[in-house]
Amino acid sequence: MKRSLPSVEAGALRLRLIEESDLHDTLSWRNRDEARVWFKTSTPLTYEQHANWFHQRYLPSDTDFLFVVETEGVLVGQASVYGIDWQARTAEVGRFLVDSTQAGRGYISRACGILLDICWHTLDLDYVFLEVIDTNARAIHLYRKHGFSEEEHYDGLIRMGLRKNQARTE
Fold first, then answer.
1. DSSP, res 21
2. What is the share, in percent, of the chain residues with pLDDT greater than 90?
3. Could you tell me the sign of the dihedral formed by the alpha carbons of 9, 13, 18, 20, in that order?
4. Can you give the residue ranges of every domain in the chain?
5. pLDDT at 68
6. What is the DSSP string of 139-152?
7. Is 131 helix (H, G, I), strand (E, B) or coil?
């Protein structure tokens, strides 16, 4: 059963756990052509597939937390920590998406910093990693800015990791 996590606010930005009422927005962000190309599974999803994931896989899982990003009550993006290994205190981060009308305003960079703070202080993780397509220069730059370093290259992907004691604060 999924544990409850508090919303986290930093300045005008707020991260809170996704709710069923957010599914239409998050699906529209994920299905945009310019966003899908950066996912390992880039085929468009139906609302039914998205809702099934939410109810059957996400809600019952205590190792997957998807946050929506809000500013002034408006949804602007999402960020996630998942695949949490509670014993090893590790997890994967990602699923970063921004509403196309809100792109270029730094919301995802700030959300990444807040998400890392949640990983270190709320979830008590010691290490997080992500996989990024090796041609996604913009994302790679963002992750390096937050302290991630390249660990491995494989199948067109770069695995980047970050340890709690090496994390940068903005």
1. G
2. 76
3. positive
4. 8-163
5. 97
6. HHHHHHHTT-EEEE
7. strand
Per 3-state DSSP, what percentage of the chain is helix, strand, and coil (rounded to 5)? 35, 35, 30
Which pLDDT does position 168 carry in this prediction? 67
User: Residue 58 corresponds to which tokens in the numbers above?
Assistant: 């996400």
What CA–CA distance (Å, rounded) separates 120 from 160? 17
The DSSP 8-state label assigned to residue 42 in this structure reads: -
Quick one: pLDDT band at residue 37, thresholds 50, 70, 90?
A: low
Cα-based distances in Å from 61 to 22, 79, 82, 97: 18, 17, 9, 21
Q: Which helix (H) or strand (E) holds 114?
A: helix 107-117
pTM: 0.91
pLDDT band at 86 (very low <50, low <70, confident <90, very high): very high
Q: Which CATH class is domain 8-163?
A: alpha beta
